[in-house]
Specification:
two-stranded antiparallel ribbon, mainly alpha, 460 residues, cell membrane, Arginine/agmatine antiporter, transmembrane helix, 2 strands
Length: 460
């Protein structure tokens, strides 16, 4: 049952585990989950547009900050575990809540599989034996997944510590490139502002579409709300701070990459930041970036593993997901959800390394894209919907501010979905439909359980 206190909706919550997440750990979760393998590859993708691609980063950074403010406000209105799922359920009801929890959960463990594969690839750059053997590559990926599963089962505090350490370490090479790299910039590389052959507006839009994926995960601090110290203050600050840090890193690193490596060379690079570091510091620079990439993907894998447990756990507490997901281990962690999520991720990783099944794996990755973006659209207007559902829709500056902020976030989210492409939207829609029978089954089980409880009470 949900109680209302003034303007805040306070759902029933599970008690926080000892050693909850503070501002540092929550900020690291946001930064760590956004800065994954993408920044190590994106400069090459953006090189085709030329320096005008920085305009794309500016647009997506603005949209990400708007969404960060929205999620920060929602974390003060709905203080419960689950993040986007919790906000959607409170604003739109059980069915919408289930759809978001279902799709978001799938996106998380599917993303884990992709990150684990990327991790194995970067390890292969440093250890040639791994690159030359499918078996060794598969072993590296699976060992990483299950090492982090055990760490997360052992406690939220332990997972938070790993996230802080890996985030700090991954930022070292990126910060070096994004600061010292300006000394190596060749201004001639900025002579042609737009090299795409398209109009400036089309070029900025095209570049922005590529950079949209780099901000997925900005809501990460909202998900484990039940394990956060002073969530009403910590989550908004961590979300906005994390997005701001990430935006600065992205724009600085991309600027240096465009300025240091000639456009044609950068566009055809398979390891753009390694090439940047090699031009700046020689072969040792390439190794430094490869190590940073391994740490980066390991930290991202840890962050998404933590969320893989928290999202189904929050949904299970509301009887939206099977109750087994709501069981806690002796360490106070949702072990069932963590183990099942990463068992599914392990199956996908194995499929990826199995000859002939790569295309199937890529299709599953594509299915997860819309699952990551749809929650942003629904959450943008969730606070306004909560006001409607609680009868607090009278006018005033506060309501107007919520409406304007929500509309900005919703338009940005629609644009992000549009930029993901027709095929992604089509497959994402199929993913959503696939969850409906499961929702019906869970509702049917809950209804039968309620009838059984009433029957037992009537016999007493």
């Amino acid at each position: 049952m949900t109680e209302q206190h003034g303007t805040t909706v306070v759902p029933n919550e599970a008690p926080s585990a000892p050693g909850a997440l503070g501002l540092g750990a929550c900020t690291a979760l946001v930064v760590g989950n956004m800065i994954g393998s993408g920044i190590f590859l994106l400069p090459a993708s953006l090189a085709a547009y030329g320096p005008i691609a920085l305009g794309g980063w500016a647009v997506t950074s603005f949209g990400a900050v708007v969404l960060a403010v929205i999620f920060g406000r929602l974390s003060q209105v709905v203080t419960k575990t689950g993040g986007p799922y919790a906000y959607t359920r409170e604003g739109y009801g059980d069915f919408a809540g289930f759809i978001i929890a279902w799709g978001y959960w799938i996106a998380l463990w599917t993303g884990n599989a992709a990150v684990a594969v990327a991790l194995a690839g970067y390890v292969g750059f440093l250890v040639p034996a791994v690159a030359g053997s499918h078996a060794y590559g598969l072993a590296v990926a699976l060992i990483a997944i299950w090492t982090l599963t055990l760490i997360n089962v052992g406690g939220v505090q332990e997972a938070g510590f790993v996230q802080v350490v890996t985030t700090v370490l991954k930022l070292v090479p990126l910060t070096l490139i994004g600061t010292l790299g300006f000394l190596w910039i060749d201004s001639a590389n900025f002579t042609a502002l737009n090299t795409s052959g398209k109009s400036d507006l089309a070029a900025i839009s095209g570049a922005a579409a590529l950079t949209l994926w780099a901000y997925l995960g900005l809501e990460s601090a909202t998900v484990p709300a039940g394990d956060v110290v002073d969530p009403k203050r910590t989550i908004p600050r961590a979300t906005i701070l994390g997005v701001s840090i990430t935006a600065i890193v992205y724009i600085a690193v991309t600027t240096v990459a465009i300025g240091v490596v000639p456009p044609h060379t950068l566009a055809h690079s398979t390891a753009p930041l390694a090439d940047v570091a090699r031009r700046m510091w020689g072969a040792e620079g390439g190794v430094l970036v490869a190590i940073g990439a391994v740490i980066s993907t390991f930290g991202t894998l840890n962050g998404f593993t933590l969320l893989c447990g928290q999202v189904p756990y929050g949904a299970a507490l509301d009887r939206i997901f099977p109750v087994r997901f709501g069981h806690l281990s002796r360490y106070g962690t949702p072990a069932n959800a963590l183990v099942l999520s990463n068992l599914l991720a392990s199956i996908l990783v194995t499929m990826n390394f199995a000859k002939g099944l790569v295309s199937a794996f890529n299709t599953i990755i594509l299915l997860a894209v819309m699952s990551s973006l749809l929650p942003y659209a629904l959450c943008s207007l969730a606070e306004l919907m909560i006001l409607v559902r609680t009868g607090r829709t009278s006018g005033g500056p506060a309501v107007v501010k919520i409406a304007i902020l929500g509309c900005l976030g919703f338009v940005y989210s629609l644009w992000a979905l549009y930029g993901s492409g027709a095929e992604t939207i089509y497959l994402g829609f199929l993913l959503i439909l696939a969850g409906i029978p499961i929702h019906v089954w869970i509702k049917w089980r809950n209804a039968n359980a309620s009838v059984g409880e009433l029957a037992s009470q009537s016999k007493l």
